[in-house]
Write a structure and sequence with these properties.
Length: 155
Amino acid sequence: MITSGSLVSLRAWERVRGFDESLFIDYVDNDLCLKVIDEGFRVCVARSAFLEHSLGERTRHSALGHDFRPTHHSPLRHYFMARNRITMWRRYAVRHPHWALFDSVFAGYNYIRVLVFEKNRPKKLRAVLLGTWDGLCGRSGPCPEDRKLALTSAD
C-alpha cells in the first residue's frame, strides 16, 4: 500500500511509533505496514476505493508483447529508493522473505524499465549505486549535500 490515502488505527500507530522518518521519502509506507504486521495487526486494502494519485511522470511503452510504464523519477529519487531498500531488507528480509523476494524482483523490473525507456540513465545508475552504497553503510535521513550535488548537477 502507499502512504497517500492510508487510514491507520490510532492503537496500531501508537504501538509502532508511527513512521520512521529516517527513511525519508521511499519505503516509509512499507516499513509502517511491516511493523504493523509484526505487532499482530492486519493491513487491509479497500478494493473499491479510488485515489487519484500520480506516481512520477509515467509513459507507456510496448516491447516484446509487454506493456511497460516507467516512472521517470529523478536521480535523487532513485538514490532514496536504493538506499532505503537496503535498510528495509536488513530489517525485514528474514521475518518477511515473501516481501523481500517481491521487492527484489520489482526492483530488478524497475531498473530494466529505467535502463531501456528512460533518459538520464548514467546519472540514475550512479544514483542507484550511491544509494546502495549508503544503504550498506547504514546512512539514513536526508541526502548528504555531496551526494545531492553529484546527482543534480549537469554533466
